[in-house]
Specification:
Glu/Leu/Phe/Val/Trp_DH_C; about 45% helix; binds nicotinamide-adenine-dinucleotide; oxidoreductase; about 550 residues; Rossmann fold
């Protein structure tokens, strides 16, 4: 960061102007150059003349008032960070502002030099980090969700800054040989460990052509909150390789996985960080990771990964666990609503590990699954998709493409089908401001991570559609991963029904806690789940204290 920070202060009260300018100029760490405008139009004109590093914005100005002021300025200056300085000590407004992208909300009557200069410094650091490798819509979503919860909890601002970015992140480039021996590809790989406070870190490995540090960081953050919500003794982590797995042969995938594992070998381990499967990886990937790690250790170390095959010490029920967990949570929500599930319909987006198992268990409960999809498109059958036939087709072809029964439709059309339960179980950012108004379901159960944008969340809440958030709805995977790790450490093996009953009990308990929290704080289920997770991590950090 250069030592000179250009601040644009938009403030009409001369006393406050002087106060803020003085506070900034007295700050020791940074050299602030302050320009002042009294109205929004003047401020924007000054910004156009010469951009600022940060904007300090009063909300009550002669030409604009309240939240509108923020939106007007944000629309013209993005991505420059905005810190709101206001006389209004209004929690709802503060939450709305940070959720919509304000970096901080400071109440003038509580202002002092230290608070102001730290807030500006943190705002600048966040903007700088997000402009680089961390630039990602998913991280923006994870940050907005977290800052909203932090604002509602009045979380200490140092903890807020610390939890916004990972404690450790490793970026690697790795070469692997294609089957044509002379051809070598070099790709980017990542392993991000968000919070090291709670125990070893835990999180999947994703192979996808869009993976980047920001996306992996967002996923690692969500893992932290998810593990904390489920009371599992892990911090969050995530890994990924930017590659198209469907263009690689089995041998190529094996070489890539082994090289990725050896590049991150120093930061993983049964007591350090335990990978698992995610998008584009599966139990075979975990078997190769375990083997590579074990070869280096000189003995078998099954507990270094979870989601491995049962024959290598995997847990019964792990492969199905995320989809099964989604359905356990749907069952709880249905019970609360007094629904009979055999009178209900569902649509599932994504027919991979999570989606196909969720569809199967819904079908077993008598729910009519009228639509499913994958990246090649969707299928609609009002009488219910024949999942057995579909599974046979997918086993042969690999995708839904060419499946003859039912009507074909796009993923966008599938999401708007009339049904009781919609299960997005594919990729992020599927339910957005542009389609949230058109959804025709009563419940959204998030199998995928981050499928709903914050704007869409607001629209769904307004429309009375309940979202069972990813932190809770897809927590079955990491919970059974925890069971697998425990079984590995104890050299024991639980039966399928032991696994499923323990999973059901933990998810039911978490569901009830989240619902109670949401009623107590009058917030949606996502915010309630986030607050529960963030609060547990914050308390643990405070208990451990600051080293040195
Ligand atoms: P997967 O690779 O097994 O399956 C993904 C499915 O989504 C495939 O059918 C693919 O064709 C489909 N898909 C990809 N892009 C799509 C698009 N744009 N539109 C529609 N379909 C698309 O992956 P998975 O393990 O089932 O993971 C799915 C989601 O669930 C991810 O968001 C992942 O982070 C999340 N998740 C997975 C687990 C787990 O245990 N596997 C646990 C928690 C959360």
């Amino acid at each position: 960061m250069s030592d000179r920070v250009e601040v644009l202060l938009i403030e009409d009260n001369p006393v406050h102007m002087r106060l803020i300018e003085n506070l900034l100029k007295r700050g020791l760490e940074l050299n602030f150059e302050v320009r002042i405008a009294e109205r929004v139009d003047q401020g924007l004109a000054l910004f156009e003349e010469k951009p600022a590093d940060v904007i300090l914005l009063d909300l009550m100005l002669p030409d604009s008032e309240g939240f509108e002021t923020f939106l007007k300025v944000k629309g013209r200056v993005e991505p420059t960070p905005i810190v709101i300085l206001t006389g209004l000590d209004d929690m709802q407004l503060a939450v709305r502002a940070v959720e919509s992208g304000a970096q901080d909300y400071l109440v003038k009557s509580q202002l002092n030099g230290e608070l102001l200069s730290r807030s500006v410094r943190y705002a600048l650091e966040r903007a700088r980090a997000r402009a680089g490798e961390w630039k990602s819509p998913m991280l923006r979503l994870a940050h907005q969700q977290f800052l909203k919860a932090a604002q509602l909890m009045n979380l200490d601002d140092n903890l807020r800054q610390r939890l916004l970015f990972p404690q450790r992140s490793q970026v690697v480039t790795l070469p692997f040989r294609r089957d044509d021996y002379g051809q070598v590809e070099t790709v980017f790989g990542y392993r991000v460990q968000h919070v090291l406070t709670m125990g070893p870190t835990k999180g999947g490995v994703r192979y996808h052509h869009d993976v980047n540090l920001g996306e992996v960081t967002a996923l690692a953050m969500w893992m932290t909150w998810k593990c904390a919500l489920m009371h599992l003794p892990f911090g969050g982590a995530k890994g990924g390789v930017r590659v198209r797995p469907d263009t690689l042969s089995r041998q190529e995938l094996q070489r890539l996985t082994r090289r990725y594992t050896s590049e991150i070998i120093d930061v993983i381990g049964p007591d350090k960080d335990i990978p698992a499967p995610d998008l584009g990886t599966n139990e075979q990937t975990m078997a190769w990771m375990m083997d590579t790690y074990s070869e280096q250790a000189g003995h078998a170390v099954p507990t270094v990964v979870t989601g491995k095959p049962v024959v290598l010490g995997g847990s019964r029920g792990r492969k199905e666990a995320t989809g099964r967990g989604v359905v356990f949570v749907i069952e709880e929500a249905a019970r609360q609503r007094g629904w009979r599930l055999d009178e209900r319909t569902a649509v599932v987006q994504g027919y991979g590990n999570v989606g196909s198992h969720a569809a199967r268990y819904l079908d077993e409960l008598g729910v009519r699954v009228v639509g499913v999809s994958d990246h090649t498109g969707g299928i609609f059958d009002s009488t219910g998709v024949d999942l057995e036939k579909l599974d046979a087709h997918v086993a042969e072809v690999g995708t839904l493409e060419g499946y003859a029964q039912g009507d074909r439709l796009t993923n966008a059309e599938l999401l708007e089908l009339k049904c009781d339960v919609l299960v997005p179980a594919a990729v992020e950012n599927q339910i957005t401001a542009s389609n949230a108004g058109k959804l025709q379901c009563e419940l959204v159960a998030e199998g995928a991570n981050g499928p709903t944008s914050t704007e869409a969340d607001d629209i769904l809440t307004e429309r009375g559609i309940t979202v069972l958030p990813d932190l809770l709805a897809n927590a079955g995977g990491v919970t059974v991963s925890y069971f697998e790790w425990v079984q590995g450490i104890q050299n024991t093996m639980w039966t399928m029904s032991e696994v499923n009953e323990r999973l059901r009990a933990l998810l039911q308990e978490a569901y009830r806690r989240v619902v109670a929290q949401s009623e107590e704080l009058s917030v949606d289920l996502r915010t309630a789940a986030l607050i529960a997770g963030v609060d547990r991590v914050a308390r643990a950090k405070l208990m451990r204290g600051l080293y040195p």
